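Posting for a labmate who doesn't have an account.
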Amino acid sequence: MNVLIVDDNQENLYMLESYLKGSGYEVVSAENGNEALEKLKSGHVDIIISDILMPNMDGFQLCRTCKQNESLSSIPFLFYSSTYTDKKDREFALGLGADRFVVKPADPEKLTEIINDVLKEHRGGVQTIQSKEIKEETVYLVEYNKRLVEKLESKLSELNREISERKKLEKAVLEIEERERRLIGQDLHDDLGQILTAIAYKNHVLHQKLEDKLLDETGDVDELTSLISKAQKRVKQISRGISPVEMHRDGLARALEELASNTGRIYDISSVFICDGPFYIRNETAITHLYRIAQEAVTNAVRHGKPSHIEIQLKKEYDKINLTIEDNGTGIQESHEANGMGMKIMKYRANMIGALLEVLSNNNGGTQVKCVFTDKT
């Protein structure tokens, strides 16, 4: 028995073809309706097993074409689909003249049993009872379009659910990441910081003892004291970099002020922070994201814009939090990073908190990054 299987999924084709060949069938395969029609012209086929959702010509169109063709209409047709699976899909498929409608995946033995039953019915001249047989072309087109529209709406709804779930997961991952950052920062500050403080104290005591005994090793102890002091400062810098924002009333303002101060000191440029007064941000997750956006904007400006002045502004208008980072560098138009990873990260973070992010080039040169966030409860 020669079986024509039609499916645009290579894995599905391979699995079904392998099973049917193992069951003693001769198998011909096609990836869409048009290709299936070409295969039907070139060889004898005893039964057609077709998927529905395929490019170029789908399974519905293939079945309709076969049943309207005198030389092909007598070939048994079996739908095998995982996409079109509801009652209306089944009724439409059988109305086109299909012999069976099987939902994918089916148990291989059960599928073989169905194939044998259909072939037996045709050999015995048994006419398959069809559901509301569709003969008129206009009726066919109307029903066909209904199937497509309903399936499209279903897929869009499914896609929207997946996007929503992905956003929730992405938000949760970012929140976990920031929480871990804070824990590491606290551990560095509290544990390692305290250890260094204890070492510094012991070193001070040792210095006093050596000094009392008029020993020359006090110079080595002084050098050790200097190294411990540098280590303490470095631990503080790292812990602040990992967890820069303290979750209190003016935590964001303080962190941005420190960001501006450090930027000016490290890069030897003018860097200022302007805030219209301390105010409370209810959304703690947003506080961290807003800081990271400002941090990324400053990093991009210094790295690519070569500015001599950077200004960070934080203002509140009713429930709107306005964060602006402005520089007098070369501007985004001249930067090859205009669509780089830094910009994508800022937009991603803004999207996570429902904020509006704009990145603009100033007329007099430089770049302005503006993020507007609505602070809701």
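Reply:
Got it, the structure tokens are right above this. The chain has three domains: 2-135, 162-243, 245-377.
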